[in-house]
Specification:
heterodimer, A: 3-stranded antiparallel beta sheet, B: alpha/beta, 4-stranded mixed beta sheet, 3-stranded mixed beta sheet, 7 strands
Chain lengths: 141, 143
């Protein structure tokens, strides 16, 4: 697949894997070159939520590196609430877990939010629907 | 090697071509000065409190000091702060999505370098395809 040399890869995302679409989850994969994509949040969990995952499963790492992805479903333009939401997720997590981390990863445009997910959702709809939503959005702006 | 992708989504294939979502006006109130906005402050606070590296994406506004004719430059960026609260990397998104192109300039490729405590690290923001794409391999080569 991708990056066979990487020891670890982590990202947030909407993922199209074959014919399946998974949204708002984050993933990691091992660096063995033969491993498959691992779902850190099971595909049947709620598609949008606030999560803190303290580390890659031990079997996926070749060292003791500990990484966490902070996901908190940021809302576009709602910076204060987004900050509070991120703080709340961290506050609920085990503080010793956080202290033992090497890296904490937040999404792209984490606190300002981004329209990307909506774009992606639109992609799953028909072109006519996409155009309609764009026009409606423009009208509301 | 560690790859961190500060990404909002993946596996896009020309999803938004000709689809003008977002604009400069929409992002403008949220632009942050390079490495010193609210996102960077949050990252430093958490990094110092827990002694860890924090990577967070933010909309960067680079003031063109010393060049009055050029306006400020904007990037879809990610800042990496270490456990001492110091900036380790400020990556600017390359290979922009059309949504980004409405307000951001393109960065100069993926970040790749040695980060104390993490090792060789690559940082990317973007739309990485799971199949039939060599997009992310470029991140690998950078390291």
């Amino acid at each position: 697949m991708i990056l066979p040399e990487a020891r670890a890869l982590c990202f947030f995302g909407l993922v199209r894997d074959g014919n399946s679409l998974y949204s708002d989850r984050y993933y990691c994969r091992p660096g063995s070159g033969s491993g498959s994509l691992q779902y850190l949040i099971p595909p049947d969990s709620p598609s949008v939520g606030s999560h803190f995952l303290p580390h890659f499963p031990a079997s996926l790492t070749t060292s003791s590196m500990r990484i966490a992805c902070l996901q908190f479903a940021p809302q576009v333009g709602d910076v204060d609430n987004n900050l509070n939401r991120a703080d709340a997720v961290l506050a609920k997590a085990n503080q010793d877990d956080i202290d033992s981390l090497d890296l904490l990863v937040l999404p792209e445009l984490a606190f300002s939010g981004t329209d990307f997910p909506l774009v992606f959702i639109c992609y799953k709809l028909s072109p006519i629907t996409v155009t309609g939503m764009a026009l409606k959005r423009r009208a509301l702006a | 090697m560690l790859i961190t992708a500060c990404s909002s989504h993946l596996a896009l294939s020309n999803v938004a071509q000709g689809f003008n979502f977002g604009s400069y006006d929409e992002i403008s109130p949220f632009l942050e000065p390079s490495g010193s906005g609210i996102s960077s402050l949050w990252a430093r606070t958490v990094a110092l409190k827990h002694n860890l590296n924090v990577l967070v994406g933010y909309p960067e506004k680079l003031d063109a000091s010393g060049n009055s004719r050029a306006g400020p430059k904007h990037f879809n960026s990610a800042i990496l702060v270490n456990g001492d609260g110091e900036t380790v990397a400020n990556y600017r998104k390359s290979f922009l999505h059309s949504v980004d192109e409405t307000w951001a300039l393109e960065g100069k490729g993926f970040f790749g370098g040695h980060v104390p405590g993490l090792g060789n690290t690559a940082i990317g923001i973007g739309e990485f395809r799971m199949h039939n794409s060599d997009c992310i391999h470029q991140a690998c080569l950078d390291v």
